[in-house]
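User: Please look over both lines:
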Amino acid sequence: MISFKLLESEHNCIVLNNFFYHNPKLFNFLIKNFKSINDIIANQNAIINQFNLKNTTCFNELSTYSSQQHQRYLKHNDITILTLNNSQYPTVLKQISYPPPILFYQGNIKCLSKIALAIIGPREPSDYAKKTTVHFTTILSNDFCIVSGLAKGIDGIAHQTTLNNNQATIAIMGVGLDKCYPLHHKALKDNILSKKGLILSEIPLFKAPQKFHFPLRNRIISGLSKGIIITEAARNSGSLITANHAIDQNREIFAIPGNIFKKTSEGVNDLIKQGAKCTTSPDDIYDELNINKTKPLRPPSHSNASIPTQELSEIEKNIISCMQTPKHIDELVEETQLSLSDVLHTLTFLEIKKIITKKDSTQYALINS
């Protein structure tokens, strides 16, 4: 196994990642060609010219940047640095162009040894996309480690469904591990960790969220995975960025066809035209990857009786207990003393599980009540 001298020191990892994480090509060049930070500083002019760098102030700070605050935070929050030098760094991710030289992680590193599938889609999914995500995730999480980006919408549904199925999931963050984005997924993030899942990010601690962080994250989502499942995507959707990464990385793309009259399906239907696997059943994925199911494929159930109480979270039970009669969302917030975002997030999952239904834009009722 190739070992990079620059990554042997935690201090070096923190400093280099802080200044160069946004440019993986440059970061990989540095660790492959230099053995110390001083070597980089001494050769900065050649590096600047070779990569046509505009902002060069970082070279003046490399030797003075303090990593102590970062190291304290890592230690106090059980966050570990995983580098290309580590045997636990996933081989499949090493195979992409310019893999992240360092990753920060919390949780169960053994998740990286499992065959992974990514499930992605929009932040504002249709009911159809929600149902297909729950159906595919419920089946596939028995045999694959489900990877997604902890975003609102399909990402959150994929993670939560995996946990509901008593399986571990990997969340790739587009922010540093000192943050949670979106904030209302804090409970989900904690649940992933408590149920032996894994949280990963290459974004340095204490960095403000930036738009470019998410395309960086997306290449890791696809890079870690045997294939990616796209449950819904409009044209110009962020999910298509991940699909493009997957194409570059020679990963399988499984596209679930959508309504031809809906703009929210145009992107995913275009992928099918371009050669993505038209996927209408989890069986399609097992067959394509030549993997046997450990449990028989069953259609998703839509009755309340099929969802045991023990599979509900405490927040879900709390909300259900308040809904003996139809309730306005403001009433639910007041009676449960939960935040509006937590109530909305939980109502989405209860709708998916066919426990509640939306009577109008703001009022909800139990099904069969």
